[in-house]
Amino acid sequence: QLSKLFTTAYVSRINANLVAPAKSVLIKPNELGAALARPLHLAAYEPYHHLSTLAAAVSYGIIRGEPF
């Protein structure tokens, strides 16, 4: 399952690789967890959504919550 792959620790490591050589700091871990849960809830309650919609839900949650 993707929910087991995309943990907050895994996403934090991805962010660290993207912003290197700057330091990546997870300021709001709860906001990141909520952002990662958005597509799971969306898929559970509205299963007809396309994968791109679920990806947009993650992106929106990260941008809106500003966990880093």
TrEMBL record:
The lineage of its organism: Eukaryota, Fungi, Dikarya, Basidiomycota, Agaricomycotina. This is Uncharacterized protein. InterPro entries: Type_II_TA_Toxin (IPR053737). It comes from Dendrothele bispora (strain CBS 962.96).
